[in-house]
Amino acid sequence: MQNNSSSITLGSTNLTVLCDDTLQPPLHSEHGFSLLVEKAGEPTVLFDTGTSDVFIKNASTIGKNLTKVEYIVISHGHYDHAGGLKYLTSLGKKFNVYLRQDAFLPKYSGDRFTGTDWEAIKDWFEFVIVKDKLIKITNSIYAFGPARMRSKFEEPDPNFQIIKNNERVRDFFEEELNLVIDEDDGIVLITGCAHRGIINIVLDALELFDKKIKLLIGGFHLYKSSEEKVDKVVSALKNLPIEQIIPIHCSGELARMKLTL
Questions:
Q1: By the number of CB atoms within 10 A of the CB, which of 24, 40, 50, 110 ranks highest?
Q2: Could you tell me which residues are beta bridge partners of residue 210?
Q3: 7-259 belongs to which CATH class?
Q4: pLDDT in tens, 35-71
Q5: Low-confidence ranges of the chain (pLDDT < 70)
Q6: Structural domain boundaries of the chain?
Q7: pTM over 0.85
């Protein structure tokens, strides 16, 4: 999938990027991420909602009916992944939203608030608090996280902070969830921002499902990374059992270029 397209089909699974930084007209772009998962015979799942109503506008443009969504999974509490939730209230449906408790915490990048106004939408959704490492959403769709931080060159950006127990502390994104579609011949792995490290997430997915990754797609959070770090990540990814990689959102041009060579 390139930037002039928003969909990819793998067998009976169709993935549609509804929000990304670089979608092409007639689709709208914004800094954010949202992806629709439609798998034959299973409930429709929405992973993240971008910053605004862009994902709803794009869904309408390409003929996707979001009232058919049964489950929403929020990767983490940043505004560019959960901010669009409030715009779903106009659809007249109370959606089931899967997320971890820490997603509700106030979040900052330096002095800038980067979280979500949960208080304004708390009564509009049925929040399902994920407590286990791995949770089954539908017959073949799972959410898992947080990934175990094991690689020596990956860690969350130290500028990100949360307020927890009335204290401002570094954010290690312990609420971060990733999505997996489990199929007979491999898995599809979808990441929101990969704040805990894309290699860490991939290694966890490989261990949890013991299958090759047919497709890795999502934000890899490498847009501010040095070329040295990007090279390490790219080298590691290319040495893992991954058939196709589509870096979008916060992955950065350098990583996109190197991963498509």
A1: 50
A2: none
A3: alpha beta
A4: 999 999 999 999 999 999 999 999 999 999 999 999 9
A5: 1-5, 261
A6: 7-259
A7: yes
